[in-house]
UniProtKB/TrEMBL annotation:
The lineage of its organism: Bacteria, Pseudomonadati, Pseudomonadota, Gammaproteobacteria, Vibrionales. It comes from the Bacteria. This is EAL domain-containing protein. Signal peptide: none annotated. Residues 5-250 form the EAL domain. InterPro entries: Cyclic-di-GMP_PDE-like, EAL_dom, EAL_sf. PANTHER family: CYCLIC DI-GMP PHOSPHODIESTERASE PDEF (PTHR33121), OXYGEN SENSOR PROTEIN DOSP (PTHR33121:SF71). It comes from Photobacterium iliopiscarium.
């Protein structure tokens, strides 16, 4: 995060109303078959007067100021709608703040949107991003249980950073473990990063989770990750996050 963005809650609401928030999509590649398996939705603020505001800053502000749910509902519905135009994607990953897990009936909202746009619930994975601490409540437990029962995937994003920890792995029925780019970045030269990833892949296999590595920027890194047995990869080496028309043209 940077201290130059200076974004406020009022600016977020205003930009949302004026349609300046846009979904970008980053392809996720299946390592074994070497094909694009799906996409992760990443929000962008496309206001020419605010083009320096980075996602990490507006997401952090939205979380702190309790407008993250507004961004979620906008972005998730748009993503489900966009993806319904390309049935060859069998995975849509949506970032979900722990705060949004405490929205009553989140699961039925998501179910309704999948039905409305004719998208399989099994193809939607919710990436729980723990930049803020998750507070377990009856509502969040009900959401998690129902989301899994309906077939939605649950991913533990940026595992090993922030609040994304072993205790969370224990308490939620995850289907996927996502390895943060900080463990990938120096893998060519840092043997302990390599060991950590080896360990994470092992752990995921034991727990029956699929693994995704983010932040793959070059071929050598990709080869190392592939040989360590990671299932899915994402990064600038393959594709940067892009507008929907660009991703549909791939
Ligand atoms: P994340 O979910 O871990 O997303 C991956 C971040 O890594 C994205 O940054 C992506 O653009 C970036 N990335 C992908 N490939 C590479 C690469 O090869 N190299 C490098 N250096 N970076 C790469 P982005 O889009 O800036 O998003 C940052 C974080 O903001 C996300 O991290 C996620 O936690 C959060 N975020 C973004 N959009 C949303 C959203 O709609 N809702 C929520 N709750 N969080 C969001
Ligand atoms: Mg993510
Ligand atoms: Mg991530
Ligand atoms: Mg990350």
């Amino acid at each position: 995060m940077c201290d130059q963005c200076l974004i406020t809650k009022e600016m977020i609401i205003d930009n949302l109303q004026k349609n300046y928030f846009v979904n970008y999509y980053q392809p996720i590649v299946n390592v074994k078959e070497n094909i694009i398996n799906g996409v992760e939705v990443l929000l962008r603020l496309k206001n020419p007067l605010l083009d320096n505001v980075c996602p990490e800053c507006f997401i952090a502000c939205a979380e702190n100021e309790n407008v993250i749910n507004d961004l979620f509902f906008f972005s998730a519905e748009q993503a489900i709608k966009d993806i319904s135009n390309n049935k060859s994607f069998n995975k849509l990953s949506i970032n979900l703040s722990p705060k949004t897990l405490n929205v009553p009936n989140l699961y039925s909202w998501l179910k309704d949107k999948c039905n409305k746009y004719d998208i399989k619930k099994e193809s939607v994975t919710l990436e729980i991003t723990e930049n803020v601490e998750y507070v377990e409540t009856d509502i969040s437990l009900e959401n998690i249980e129902n989301l899994r029962m309906l077939g939605f995937g649950l991913s533990i994003d940026d595992f090993g950073t922030g609040y994304s920890s072993y205790s969370r792995l224990k308490s939620m029925p995850f289907t996927e473990l996502k390895i943060d780019k900080m463990f990938i970045k120096h893998i060519k030269t840092n043997n302990s990063d390599k060991k950590i990833i080896e360990h994470l892949v092992n752990l995921a296999q034991i727990l029956g989770l699929q693994t995704v590595a983010e932040g793959i920027e070059d071929l050598e890194t990709y080869h190392i990750i592939k040989n360590l047995g990671v299932n899915l990869c994402q990064g600038y080496f393959f594709h940067k996050p892009m507008a929907i028309n660009d991703v549909l043209a791939l």
